[in-house]
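Researcher: Here's a chain I'd like modeled. Treat it as a single chain, no partners, no ligands.
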Amino acid sequence: MNSKKSRDLAPAVTRAISILETLAQAKKPLTLGELVAYLDLPKSSVFGICSSLVRGSLLDRGDTGAYSIGLRIVDLANSRLEQNNLTGEFMRFWDTHPHFLRDAAVLSERLERDVVYLACRNSSRPLGVTFRVGMRLPAAVTATGKAILSTLSNREIDELYQGKGSLGDLTSQSVKSLTSLRKQLAQIRKQGYSIDDGETREGMCSIGAPVFARGGNVAVAGVALSFFRADLDEAHRKQAIATLKELAATLSEKAVSLNPAQSA
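Model: Modeled as a single isolated chain. Structure tokens:
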């Protein structure tokens, strides 16, 4: 394999991806000038690509001239989810487990150092966070993210995080160092489930488990339940762990890789 960085065969496509990712992360519309500043690209190039994306409904351009993600992106995302049966199976599973009706339940996959939520059932009580499809959170501090990361080797974890700054400082309890994260992941590998104890939201505790594609040893997704920490007694905790492992095994029987790049 050539150790040198591969030549970009489609630089315009790469720039279009960068524009879409920048707008998704900005959480607000951005003007042409702001996009140029963020991306450090020629203004003419950014304008041309944005114009093409607007014509394809992948971007919207508002009355002020600022750009935002277009609704066509939602259609494409829904099409992708429909190609895999995990989301439907995930929701059906909880219909047969009413004793967790008050608790939040989520299904996510990893995208680089984040998790992206694919299916959510929010708690009937105010946990302080409302999960939604497409929401992104740092993998290192979430129950699903930790479960997925635990299936990577230490070398892969180092490559993913070393020299990349914060692991995802959402609360005072969030894991702060790569050394601490490695210790957490080692424990998860031993016990088969993960714990987010106030790392995503103060006062909330989440338990997660990894989902594998058939025959794979690297998780393609993660599942989790979230509770008020004060309400999570030992009996409910043990029941949640057993139920999540059951769900993860059920989904693993049906899963194909959601992200081929992760199973390569």
